[in-house]
Structure formats: structure tokens, C-alpha cells
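Exercise 7b. C-alpha cells:
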């Protein structure tokens, strides 16, 4: 047995990775004892390794005493060849889309049960937007999220549909209604939301394809879609197709 780990043969690196691996979509904030239990490590070992991870920036300690993934992990994630390539290819088209719509523009991918925002251009109109670059939001309550959920594997869809929870009074929490919306995404090629993530904000989004596979979603957020849905869809579709061709 290596060190104090309960896992035979575990190295110091392996134990540190076990601590980082204790976090997931449902466990984004963990106490020291929870980390020890989920990583299957003694409390003293966990305390020592967590202190080193906090010092390095891989973890952050909240005022409550619980730990969350640190900013440095996100910075490293930006070095991922897939995400970096996608963002670099998409960047000029995001600016073109912003210029054509003056709306907040989002580039996002799916990570587990969440949508993760790779890039965002903030519109100059007063629309409440809760997303930030690197933030995770529910798939079922955002335009880009609904697109990615519509093309997600069936097991992901089933899990999300079992865990619908209201965020605003307009959030879709009826599985049957959401299923119909996901089918509409596949039929018409885009998804919409109406104040489902934040009041006063509506969105429309389309898939970005590479080799016939949906690899990301592109969307805009506006105060209202009335009278502009098809115009925005046209602009999004052109941008998404251009990004897909460049990938």
C-alpha cells in the first residue's frame, strides 16, 4: 500500500486525482469529510493534499468551509486542443453574429448534464444574462442547452428529464412538454427559451456540426423573440454552418 491511501498501490498523484475526481455535476461543493469519503482516503491524508491543491489553485475554499474546483483548473481546461480549436475557429463568426444582432452571443458544449459556456459576447441591450465563460447551467433551461440535449444520448436525456426543477416560473418542468420541445429541435433545427433561465431573457440556438456530429451549440439571448425568431435563426444558421465548415 502506498502512503496512507486505502487503495492498494495508490501514488500521491493518484490520491490527488481521486480528490479532484470526487467532484461532479451533483457534487460541486464538498466538505473535507465528504472529500475524504468520496475519494476513499483517510481524513488526515485528504487534509494534507487538499491544502496543497488549494495552494496551487486546483481547489478553492469557501467561507462555509467547503471546497470547490479552483480557477486554475478552468485555465488549464482552456488549453484542451478540442475546446481551444473550437473557440479559435468560432471567434470571428461570433463577432459577425454580434454585429448582425447586437444580442448576447453564446458558444457552448455539453458536459454531463450541464451546458458549459466556452465563449460569450455581451450584447449592448439591457437583457439579464446569468451565463459567464466557464459557467455550467442546466441543459433544459437554456437555448444552447436544449439544442445539446436534443442531440444527447438517450441515457442523458432520461436522466435530465427525471431531474427537472424550476428556475423561474416559466421553466419547463413537465417531462412530456420538454420531450416535445426536443423533438421540435430535431425537426426545425433550432431551440428557443422564453424566460426559463432568467426573467426578461429569451434565447434561440442552433447546433454546430462537424462530420455530421453535433459538437457544440451557438445561441443568442434577447429580450423577446416576437417578430425576430426567423431572422435570428437565419443569422445563427449561417454562422453555425460557417463554423462547422472551418472545423
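Sequence design result:
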Amino acid at each position: 500500500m502506498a502512503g496512507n491511501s486505502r487503495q492498494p498501490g495508490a501514488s500521491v498523484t493518484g490520491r490527488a486525482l481521486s480528490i479532484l475526481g470526487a467532484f461532479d455535476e451533483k457534487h460541486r461543493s464538498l466538505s473535507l469529510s465528504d472529500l475524504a469519503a468520496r475519494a476513499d482516503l483517510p481524513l488526515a491524508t485528504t487534509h494534507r493534499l487538499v491544502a496543497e491543491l488549494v495552494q496551487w489553485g486546483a481547489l478553492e475554499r469557501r467561507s462555509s468551509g467547503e471546497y470547490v474546483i479552483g480557477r486554475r483548473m478552468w485555465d488549464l481546461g482552456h488549453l484542451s486542443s478540442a475546446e481551444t480549436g473550437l473557440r479559435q475557429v468560432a471567434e470571428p463568426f461570433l463577432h459577425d453574429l454580434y454585429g448582425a444582432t447586437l444580442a448576447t452571443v453564446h458558444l457552448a458544449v455539453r458536459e454531463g448534464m450541464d451546458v458549459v459556456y466556452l465563449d460569450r459576447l455581451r450584447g449592448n441591450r439591457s437583457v439579464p444574462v446569468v451565463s459567464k465563460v466557464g459557467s455550467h447551467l442546466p441543459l433544459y433551461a437554456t437555448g444552447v442547452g436544449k439544442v445539446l440535449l436534443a442531440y444527447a444520448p438517450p441515457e442523458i436525456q432520461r436522466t435530465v428529464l427525471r431531474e427537472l426543477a424550476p428556475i423561474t416560473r416559466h421553466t419547463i418542468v413537465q417531462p412530456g412538454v420538454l420531450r416535445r420541445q426536443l423533438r421540435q429541435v430535431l425537426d426545425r433545427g433550432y431551440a428557443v427559451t422564453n424566460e426559463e433561465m432568467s426573467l426578461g431573457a429569451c434565447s434561440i440556438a442552433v447546433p454546430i456540426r462537424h462530420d455530421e456530429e453535433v459538437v457544440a451549440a451557438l445561441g443568442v439571448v434577447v429580450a423577446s423573440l416576437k417578430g425576430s425568431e426567423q431572422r435570428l435563426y437565419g443569422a445563427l444558421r449561417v454562422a453555425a454552418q460557417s463554423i462547422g465548415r472551418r472545423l
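Instructor comment: Residues 172 and 178 are 7 Å apart (CA to CA). Residues 1-5 have pLDDT under 50 and may be disordered.
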